[in-house]
């Protein structure tokens, strides 16, 4: 790999793989579509990708083999809590809006509990022993941590543990294993991160452009372009209904004195109840369109 190309470590096969690749494609990188290879080169920009297991990504950044990485915040936090040396190695650049989940304490469904003190002197199975240890310390709980690398949710059923500390997304896996979520310890999502050491000037230039593009892609994902017709005198009410919007563009409507066409970019999700509120102040012919690219 050339030293003049920025190297990014991504998960090869798993929940973050497709979204990570898709994000870089949306940033304009021309990447080969096959995922069989460990190494990708962008054809049109000096960026190389290394596809590996997510757990290896922080070490690749720490060792200077890659410059940037995408992992779940849960993985990064577990690594950085190991010791201070690790935590000073990494800098989180930004959350990426995918891979959302939470690290939670869960217990058997039929278990009665009043407070988190239920965990005193219990056995808790997890693949995140460091984060669990930190949480227990903070809550003044003494418990036995049963460290296992996968299928944590089956531990209570096998009488290996009284509770688990694991990732939850829809909650289906917990329900299938007769468990219920007791306490959310950490909300997580995929994050873009780098080593704290400085890039050389070539890499810095490549990084600055990439960073701007990623920010634009994320901003665009969150934004919607909204078009509708409305009574001219309802504009101020409409602005109150659409928070997170820039100044609307107001255009005359052919053959109508009191109605106008309104075009506006919303930086927030647009829900059905927002559209219903618009209708109540007289808006009609409402269109909500996705925004593909956005640059301030
Ligand atoms: O092979 P490699 O080591 O790279 O992959 P992996 O098996 O370690 O990770 P992977 O692909 O399962 O997850 C990668 C990242 O995705 C995690 O570190 C999280 O940041 C994020 N993520 C988002 C999740 C989930 N959602 C998730 N639901 N990671 C795991 N799960 C598992 C969870 O452990 C449990 O077994 O899914 C099950 C729960 O899901 P629900 O939907 O039933 O609640
Ligand atoms: Zn992993």
UniProtKB/TrEMBL annotation:
Keywords: Amino-acid biosynthesis, ATP-binding, Cytoplasm, Glycosyltransferase, Histidine biosynthesis, Magnesium, Metal-binding, Nucleotide-binding, Transferase
Cofactor(s) for this UniProt protein: Mg(2+)
Any coiled-coil regions, as ranges: none
Pathway: Amino-acid biosynthesis; L-histidine biosynthesis; L-histidine from 5-phospho-alpha-D-ribose 1-diphosphate: step 1/9
Activity regulation (UniProt): Feedback inhibited by histidine.
GO molecular function, one term: ATP binding
NCBIfam families: hisG, HisG_C-term
GO biological process: L-histidine biosynthetic process
Subcellular location(s) per record: Cytoplasm
SUPFAM superfamilies membership: GlnB-like, Periplasmic binding protein-like II
Taxonomic placement: Bacteria, Pseudomonadati, Pseudomonadota, Gammaproteobacteria, Candidatus Berkiellales
Family per similarity comment: Belongs to the ATP phosphoribosyltransferase family. Long subfamily.
Lineage: superkingdom: Bacteria
Protein name: ATP phosphoribosyltransferase
Chief location: cytoplasm
Claim: RNA-binding is one of the keywords in the record: no
EC identifiers of the protein: 2.4.2.17
Catalytic activity: 1-(5-phospho-beta-D-ribosyl)-ATP + diphosphate = 5-phospho-alpha-D-ribose 1-diphosphate + ATP
Chain's role: Catalyzes the condensation of ATP and 5-phosphoribose 1-diphosphate to form N'-(5'-phosphoribosyl)-ATP (PR-ATP). Has a crucial role in the pathway because the rate of histidine biosynthesis seems to be controlled primarily by regulation of HisG enzymatic activity.
Pfam family, one: HisG_C
Cited InterPro entries: ATP-PRT_HisG_long, ATP_PRibTrfase_cat, ATP_PRibTrfase_CS, ATP_PRibTrfase_HisG, HisG_C, N-reg_PII-like_a/b, N-reg_PII/ATP_PRibTrfase_C
Domain Histidine biosynthesis HisG C-terminal: 220-293
UniProt domain ATP phosphoribosyltransferase catalytic: residue ranges: 53-215
Gene Ontology CC terms, in alphabetical order: cytoplasm
């Amino acid at each position: 790999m050339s030293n003049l190309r920025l190297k990014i470590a991504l998960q090869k096969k798993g929940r973050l793989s497709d979204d990570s690749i898709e994000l870089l494609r949306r940033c304009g990188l021309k990447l080969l579509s096959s995922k069989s290879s460990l190494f990708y080169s962008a054809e049109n920009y000096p960026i190389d990708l290394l596809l590996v297991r997510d757990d290896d990504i922080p070490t690749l950044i720490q060792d200077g083999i890659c410059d940037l990485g995408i992992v779940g915040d849960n993985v990064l936090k577990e690594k950085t809590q190991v010791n201070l040396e690790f935590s000073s190695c990494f800098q989180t650049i930004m959350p990426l809006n995918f891979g959302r989940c939470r690290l939670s304490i869960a217990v058997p469904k039929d278990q009665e509990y009043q407070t988190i003190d239920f965990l005193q002197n219990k056995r808790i199975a997890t693949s995140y022993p460091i984060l669990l240890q930190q949480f227990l310390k903070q809550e003044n709980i003494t418990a036995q941590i049963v460290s296992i690398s996968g299928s944590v949710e089956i531990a209570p059923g096998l009488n290996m543990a009284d509770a688990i500390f694991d990732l939850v997304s829809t909650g289906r896996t917990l329900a299938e294993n007769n468990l219920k979520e007791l306490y959310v310890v950490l909300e997580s999502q995929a994050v873009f991160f780098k080593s704290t050491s400085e890039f050389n000037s070539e890499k810095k230039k490549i990084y600055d452009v990439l960073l701007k593009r990623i920010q634009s892609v994320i901003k665009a994902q969150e934004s919607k372009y909204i078009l509708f017709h409305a009574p001219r005198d309802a504009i101020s009410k409409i602005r109150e209904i659409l928070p997170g919007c820039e100044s609307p563009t107001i255009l005359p409507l052919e053959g109508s004195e009191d109605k106008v066409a309104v075009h506006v970019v919303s930086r927030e999700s647009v829900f059905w109840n927002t559209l219903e509120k618009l209708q109540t102040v007289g808006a009609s012919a409402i269109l909500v369109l996705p925004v593909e690219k956005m640059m301030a």
